[in-house]
Amino acid sequence: MKIKIISLMIVVLICMGTPAVVFAEQNKTVTITDLIGRTVDIPETVHHVAALSGPGPEKVFLLGGIDKLALVPPFYKGNSWATKIIPGIKNIPSDSIDDPSIEGLLNQSIDVVLFCDYPKPIEKMTDAGIPVVVTLATTPETEPQSIDEFKDNFKKDISIYGDVLGPDAKAKAKKFNTYFDEKVNPILNITSSIPENEKPKVYYVRGPDALTTHGKNTNTAWLVSMAGGHLVSDQLQDMMPKVSIEQVISWNPDIIVMGRVNSTSLIMDDPKWKDIKAVKEGKVYTNPDGVMSWDYSSEGVLLLEYLAKMFYPDKFSNIDMIKEIKEFYSTFYNYSLTDDEADRILNHLSPA
């Protein structure tokens, strides 16, 4: 009797113009574990994703999932390299990364939201029946607690995107993680043996102002450490702490990196900074900027190479940043940069 009923349902569905195989596919789910250990049931076949963590759209694009990208954070439309390199990003609707609209998610037929570890919005979306996969940790407690954990999380994050987006993306995630190890491990083999008292003290300007930095367990803290430096703000609890000029003077960093600011003038032209060692010695550097901020995205691998070469030019004379940028963009973004374009990315300049 049960078999007859199921057969009758299939006949009815076909008569209604709904193929039974499609109906079945839409109801199949798989369970994945997100970056902070939550288990989430998502459709086996995902058609529309909302990538609403900051680096989310870049990672979806990196894994070849641009056709599934249905919602992005608003700031992507103002990123000149993203709009140049990611096809149609300007035309994709946007939503808040802090409190996405349930109506907007439902209107876009979102299958999965790729999101930060913000409890209240997660609860709201989950209550509305929308699966939420956390791909970005934002507190010192949920962020990596060691270099090994940072490395694992960096690769795990990419793998989660692959799990959500499907088999082709999963294969590309595996390729990226192999690339990650090939680039990262040789650097760590050198920097891990450098004595602490020989490592440069580094102040990182997160921006937009000179006194907002990055704190404990952030990507920046780990990347600076892996590159053989010491981030002076790495014991501050906030992800983006605000510090005083007096605090920076007391740290007296050897090197200042301008983070998400495209000029050194913010510091070099301000007399309050003139007695700091990095300023006196001219060691204030702009930070490269591409499809997404290097301290926040898959391009963090490139930032590690850039910092290692900055801190120890003799030890890493083999790293050619123009070559590395072009290789990354060609391999993972399927975009062939000219030398001039790669140089502009390296110097935090917009496309010509």
The SS-based structural class is: alpha/beta
Give the uncertain stretches in residue-range form. 1-25
CATH class of the largest domain: Alpha Beta
What number of structural domains do the residues give? 2
Taking strands numbered 1, 2, ... along the chain, how are they ordered across the largest sheet?
Answer: 4-3-5-6
Q: Can you tell me the overall shape?
A: globular
Using the CA coordinates, give the radius of gyration: 23 Å
- Fraction of residues in β-strands: 5-15%
Helix/strand order: HHEEEHEHHEHEHHEHEHEHHEHHH
Considering the protein shown, what is the CATH homologous superfamily of the largest domain? Nitrogenase molybdenum iron protein domain
Largest sheet: 4 strands, parallel
Domain Fe/B12 periplasmic-binding: 48-315
Organism: Methanospirillum lacunae
Protein name: Iron ABC transporter substrate-binding protein
InterPro entries: ABC_Transporter_SBP, ABC_transptr_periplasmic_BD
Short description:
It comes from Methanospirillum lacunae. By secondary structure, the chain is of the alpha/beta class.
